[in-house]
Specification:
By secondary structure, the chain is of the alpha/beta class. Helix content is 40%, strand content 22%. It has a six-stranded mixed β-sheet with strand order 3-2-1-4-5-6, with helices on both faces.
Amino acid sequence: MRYIAFDVETPNRYNNRMSAIGITVIDGGVITDEFYSLVNPETYFDYFNSQLTGIYEEDVADAPSFPELWERIEPIMSSGMIVAHNAVFDLGVLKKCLNDYGIQWKDYTRYMCTVQIGRRALPKMSHKLNDMCDYYGIELEHHIASSDSRACAEILLNYVNDGVDLKNFIRTYKFK
């Protein structure tokens, strides 16, 4: 199975644009590819989001806009099962970006959420990304999209190694 773990950072409280995206590809049970890019959200930044992510307006001034970036990442995003830590958030940001820019992708996607898997597989612990990374000994630079997507991928691989049957956690997210 091929999994596409992704994470986005947002510039403000509306969570309708990206300021960064990280993608980590798992193929055949190993991480085979990684992608990271800043994204020019073409909107303003809240102080809180910049403090959290370390991304400021000047950092993205020369970065591609979402439509420019989508041409590059769409083949990756379409190549496997989508996975994210708190997937509904990241998929929601993706949906809003696609809609705001009038980009057609697909009506729905199949996905898995490592938070939801963890709540069933490890019910007596916190499922925050940093706590899961501490539990599994995964290196993390939290709120850096590339690090967060890789951590999500590594958490998924740990679930597999722990014997979790992932097919029980496949969900559908509607884009239309």
